[in-house]
C-alpha cells in the first residue's frame, strides 16, 4: 500500500479550512482579548502613575537633603543631622531601585501589549485573507511559522 493512499493521511487543506472557519475559536479568542487588554492597559497606566509619584518623591527627598545640609552648615553647632541625611540618601537609593524595576516591568508590559496587538492583527488578516484567497494554506503556514519564531524570540 502506498503511503499517500493510507486511510489515516488527511489533506492539509481540510485542516486549514477548519482552522479558518471556526466561530467558536474566534469567539474565544476575541473574548480572551477583551478580558486581557483592559487589564494590561490598566496595569500599564498604574505603573506610569507610580513612576511619576516616585520621581516626585525623589525630587522632594533631594531638596530636603539639601535643606538639611544648609541648616547644618548655618547652625555651626554639632547637631546630629548626619544620621538623618544618611537615612534620606538610603531612601533615595531605594526609590531609585524601585523606579528601575518599575521601568523594566513597564518595558516588558509594553512588549507584551505589542505582541498581543500584532498577533490580533495577524489573526484578523489571516482570517480575512483566507476567506478571499484560494491559496490560504500557504499563507496560513507562513503566518504560523512567523508567529512561532516571534514567540521563541520574545520569551524572557
Automatic annotation (TrEMBL):
GO biological process, one term: lysosome organization
Compositionally biased tracts (Basic and acidic residues): 141-156
InterPro entries attached to this UniProt entry: Snapin, Snapin/Pallidin/Snn1
Top-level division of the source organism's lineage: Eukaryota
Listed Pfam families: Snapin_Pallidin (PF14712)
One of the record's GO molecular function terms: SNARE binding
One GO cellular component term noted in the UniProt record for this chain: synaptic vesicle
Start and end residues of each stretch annotated as Disordered: 128-156
Keyword annotations of the record: Coiled coil
Family from the record: Belongs to the SNAPIN family.
UniProt name for this protein: Biogenesis of lysosome-related organelles complex 1 subunit 7
Lineage, uppermost ranks: Eukaryota, Metazoa, Ecdysozoa, Arthropoda, Hexapoda
Encoding gene, per UniProt annotation: LOC108626540
Amino acid at each position: 500500500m502506498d503511503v499517500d493512499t493510507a486511510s489515516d493521511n488527511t489533506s492539509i487543506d481540510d485542516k486549514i479550512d477548519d482552522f479558518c472557519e471556526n466561530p467558536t475559536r474566534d469567539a474565544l479568542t476575541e473574548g480572551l482579548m477583551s478580558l486581557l487588554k483592559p487589564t494590561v492597559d490598566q496595569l500599564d497606566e498604574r505603573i506610569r502613575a507610580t513612576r511619576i509619584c516616585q520621581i516626585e518623591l525623589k525630587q522632594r527627598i533631594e531638596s530636603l537633603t539639601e535643606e538639611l545640609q544648609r541648616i547644618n552648615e548655618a547652625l555651626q553647632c554639632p547637631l546630629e543631622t548626619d544620621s538623618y541625611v544618611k537615612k534620606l540618601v538610603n531612601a533615595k537609593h531605594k526609590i531609585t531601585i524601585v523606579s528601575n524595576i518599575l521601568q523594566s516591568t513597564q518595558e516588558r508590559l509594553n512588549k507584551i501589549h505589542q505582541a498581543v496587538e500584532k498577533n490580533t492583527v495577524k489573526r484578523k488578516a489571516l482570517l480575512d485573507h483566507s476567506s478571499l484567497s484560494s491559496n490560504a494554506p500557504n499563507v496560513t503556514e507562513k503566518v504560523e511559522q512567523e508567529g512561532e519564531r516571534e514567540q521563541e524570540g520574545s520569551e524572557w
